[in-house]
Amino acid sequence: MTYPIAMIPYANMAPFKEMGPPEGCNLVDCLPRNSIQALIEKRVWAAAVPVGGLASLKEETEFIGRFGIAVQEQAMSVLFFSDHPFEQFGPPLTIGLTGESASSVRLLYLLLGYQNGFDNPPSLAVKGTPSNGYLVIGDHALRWAQEFERSGTVRGFSHVTDLAVLWHNRFQLPFVFARWVVRVDAPEAAKSALHAWLHRFAREEERLILKAAPKVADRLQLPTAYAERYLKVIRRCLSREDEAGQARFLDELHKHGRRTLFPGADGGENQTVKEDLVQ
Fold this sequence. Notes:
alpha/beta, D-Maltodextrin-Binding Protein, domain 2, 2 domains, five-stranded mixed beta sheet, four-stranded antiparallel beta sheet, disordered C terminus
C-alpha cells in the first residue's frame, strides 16, 4: 500500500520531484485549485495547497513545517497580460481567469480592488470571447512571458504585470502562493515520510534546482539559464517573513473578500467563491 500525495505539475515544483516520492508514498499530479477538493475527499493525504483555499480545509489539515511556494518579490509565473497598463485597468474592461488557481485569482481581485474600489471590479468576459486582460499562471505563464519578451506582445496583449511585484510594492512583504499541508487523520507513516522528505529537500534544494533546470528548460522550450533563474526565484523553504506575508494576504482577503469576486459580463455571477474561502 502506498499513500497518495498531490503534486502540482508545474515547473516551480520540479525540484521536489527530483527526489522522487516520499518513502511509501506516490505522487499524483493535481492542479493547485483541485488539490483542495482532493484533500477534502481524502483522495490524497497531503498537498501543497493554495493559500487562498486554506480556509475551506479548516480543521482537516495541518502545516508540515514552513514549506510551500513563495516569492520575495517577482514571481515570473503569476502574470496578468492586458491591452491596457495595469494602473488603467478597470470597468468597462473585461478579464479572463485561469481556472487552475485559488490564490492568484484572489490576489488579482485584491490588487484591482485597491486600485478601483472593491465595489467596482472589472467583469469577466463571456466564455469564448476576447477579453482585455487575462490571468495566467504556472508553465503557461512562463511560455507566454518568453513570447512576450521576444515580440513585445502575446495573444494580442501588449502589457504584462507580475502580480507578486505589485503585492510587494504595496506591503513590502513576500507573497505565499501555497503551503504544504497534511490531513490531520493521515496515517502516521505518511506524515513521518513526508516530514523527512521535506526536510531532506531543505538540505538539498540547491542541488535539486540545478538538476531540475535543464529538464524544465527542455520541456517548456526555455533557455536553461532562464529556467534556472525562475527555479531560484521560488522560495520553497519559508521564513517568518513569508509567514507574515501569508497572514497579511489572509487578513486582506477576510477584510475585502466577498462571495462573487468578479461579475459576469452578462450581469451573471460566473466567478463565485464559496463564503468559507473568504472568511
